Amino acid sequence: MAGDQTSVFSVWILPAVVCAPVTWVCLVHRFRGQGRLLGTVRSAASALAVVLWTSVMAALASGLLLPHASAVPPAAVGIVAGAGLVPKRRTEQAEHPVMAILTLGHSLLINSLMDRLQTDRADWCARLADGFDNCWELDVFADRVARHLKSRVEVPGRPSRGKNGPAVSLETRYEDVRAAVQRADTLETEIEKACSDGQRERTREEIGRTLRAFGEAEHLCARLLELAHAHGKRSDDRKILELRRRSLYAAAAEPSTR
Question: Which of left, alpha, beta for 33 (phi over 0: left; psi -120 to 50: alpha)?
Answer without folding.
Answer: left
